[in-house]
């Protein structure tokens, strides 16, 4: 009996010793990437990762007072509890986001995670700024895969590998081809809806007669696509935000937009809008001033984005409590195209020291409805409350951008948004068509020098024409010649070659 007791004690002691010391057996320094990977090898198990990290994230915009307080307190308290990490956010103003982001990425700054639009995935892949995510998603992204459709992930695959997390899973057909208007002012001007370009011009003129302090239209980037619906009987989609190339959705042909008759029609229309005052030439080249005017409630219309009316409503009502927003499509009988099912992409930087935790953080957001609402809206009862099944914000301070993570499984409409607008938005993808561009990524590696020169010339020579500030007749030929000298034809030929191969493989 005595020997049995002694044997039992010995076994118990050995078990305790193993529990206490096994975590150190075979592990290297906790600072090494290999050691961290070993620690996180079973992320779905109970408990949290053993090593504490600071996850460094770059976001566009400005850090509001409440957002700073929320991150440092409630959010980081929750993240320490659930993921043994804290979030360190670096905000870059929208007006300089691309420039400063690329500076950080190109110099190897130790950031982990950042956001940008889906068209930039292939650009940053080519430049080597980001890392592949397949293994990370397989190990730590169970809830991302559960709540985001597979086709969204396919959009961010290049050469068989995943390079970005498509954080949004919502309606997307016709994105950037609608127009968002101040519906309350439209009705005040005696109009009910927008169907044509002439309606937009009449809207501006009518409101100006009532109150000349309102501005017309100050969009400076994707506004061309909104006008294509009426200015041509063809169906076109833009390759990316640089507005150099378009695909004919009917024929499948890749075209040079800046050499097309459609380009001429668009920029000459914008010239006329400058003359009429619809585009204010003193503001159009100043993104910060444009945003200021919108925040002040002084813009009458801008390019829509399927759900922009809902997203911008709170900002509009901060300036004018009676403000109402609505999105319309010109030539509404024409089809809408799904170019990318999620325009929002989170990428893990190549220089990231915590790629596992970055993926775990993204997964954590969609792990539950509670986490989703918490990171977007803050603390219930303090930052928001539910009012008749809708989100009512209790603070004017911006927290996380809801549109970056909007997910059909967890979506709740904001309070004050009319039900018919929500119905229109949720039904947006009905009767849509999949774009010929769906899943295509232009690999610029072989023409990266020419692409850099072309982009620089485009910005210098074409953007003033795009905005209606430099006359087409006076400046176009010189701008096109400069674009050709920069290597435009070689870029276009390589693009056409890759797109033809892509089409044959579909």
UniProtKB/TrEMBL annotation:
Gene3D superfamilies reported in the protein's UniProt record: Periplasmic binding protein-like II
Top-level taxonomic group: Bacteria
Record protein name field: ABC transporter substrate-binding protein
Family per record: Belongs to the bacterial solute-binding protein 1 family.
Organism per entry: Cohnella hongkongensis
Record domain DUF3502: where: 437-503
Main localization, broad class: other
Alphabetical keyword list: Signal, Transport
Annotated compartments: Cell envelope
